Amino acid sequence: MRESHLFFRTQKDFPKDEVAINAQFLIRANFVQKLMAGVYSFLPLGWRVITKIENVIREEMNALGSAEILMPALHPRSVWEATGRWASMEKVMYQFKDHGGREFGLGPTHEEIVSTLAKTIINSYADLPLSVYQIQGKFRDEPRAKSGLIRGREFIMKDLYSFHEDEASLSKFYEEAKKAYMKVFGRFGLKTYITEASGGDFSKEYSHEFMVESEAGEDEIIVCRLCGFAQNKEISKLKSGASCPHCQSGVLDVIKAIEVGNIFKLGTKFSEPINLFFKDKSGKNQPVTMASYGIGVDRLMATIVETHHDERGIIWPDEAAPFRVHLLMIGEGTPELQKFADSVYNHLVKDGVEVLFDDRAGLSAGEKFFDADLLGMPWRAVVSEKTMVQEKIEIKKRNGKESKLVKVQDFVKEVKK
Known about the structure:
The chain is of the alpha+beta class. It folds into two domains: about 5-220 and about 255-310, BirA Bifunctional Protein, domain 2; about 325-415, Rossmann fold (3-Layer(aba) Sandwich). The chain contains twelve helices and 23 strands. The protein has helices spanning about 20-30, 45-65, 75-80, 85-90, 110-120, 165-185, 270-275, 295-305, 335-350, 365-375, 385-390, 410-415; strands spanning about 30-35, 40, 65-70, 75, 95, 105, 130-140, 155-165, 190-195, 205-215, 220-225, 230, 250-265, 275-280, 285, 290-295, 310, 315, 325-330, 355-360, 380-385, 395, 405. The strands form six sheets. Strands 3, 7, 8, 9, 10, 11, 12, 13 and 16 form a nine-stranded mixed β-sheet that branches. Strand 1 and strand 2 form a beta hairpin. The longest helix is centred in the middle third of the chain and has 21 residues, at about 165-185. It is elongated, with a radius of gyration of 25 Å. The model has no long low-confidence stretch (mean pLDDT about 95).
């Protein structure tokens, strides 16, 4: 991608009305643009990051044996009335009437919808277990829309739902889902705590939240850094400084954290009112046992920025970076230099390297270096009169201190390691 063709313009200063680091950098670097509190447009670089995150999630959810679907965001009132949540979710659900007076809501979550859908698929114990997921925009009438992409009114979520004949089957899949979630977050370089939390109205058991330590977090959790045991402070009776009840060796600490995912055992809370039943081996009708599993996609993007940055800008991990390499052409842009820069760009593209080429004219070297640090691609490669003479490029990792001159073919090998 040539930067001169990009729908893009960085800002010299941080947005004055944003406090969260993720919002400051993402807006300043033109990854996103704020339409209003809690609602953002994703610009080309930002959308590439979202796509990268979604693809990692897809890989791990597919490996679980789950199939991807897409459900409607617009829901009739009747489906939500069946579970009583039309009234109980009134404060967070956008509810309205169409021109014909029919009542609808924009989906903040999809348990009712997926249960209704599953009625057409599940008839017998032979159909179970089963799991499906979607990646979709959701809507919540959030009174505290703040912290950039961490808490929004419109947001992207991966929600997975699993269906089982009994608790044993559910528990087995639930544990596999935990592992899959940790793989997702690990691929983005996030140290994540599986945190015991309230089951709420769904279950007497703990639910589990996936928490990343950050001062931008809205939750406080009690953790043992030695073994990774963690509980949400809202439900914990443990105190900071106490011995860890799990490993007995570590000392508990209270930290702020961002919730990037959660999983709930739902039991039959949704299957029974929706009449989602199956015939067991004896031919009797039994309610399907369910669980739900969520990951906030744009929240995950924000968390990566909160934990991967320095004073100059974002430092994208490889799996989330919009491009692997930021190629800069530095100098007056003589025909010879332009030809050499184009050849380097074409070489990288031909060898399958994702590269953003800063071919913009009329900018100083300082301006281009400033933007490169702000945008935060894993590698920076510079072409100049100096490097052209040696038929090399100057490369530097975004999180590194030293640069070096290398042949293009050698750089390709290093990038692909």
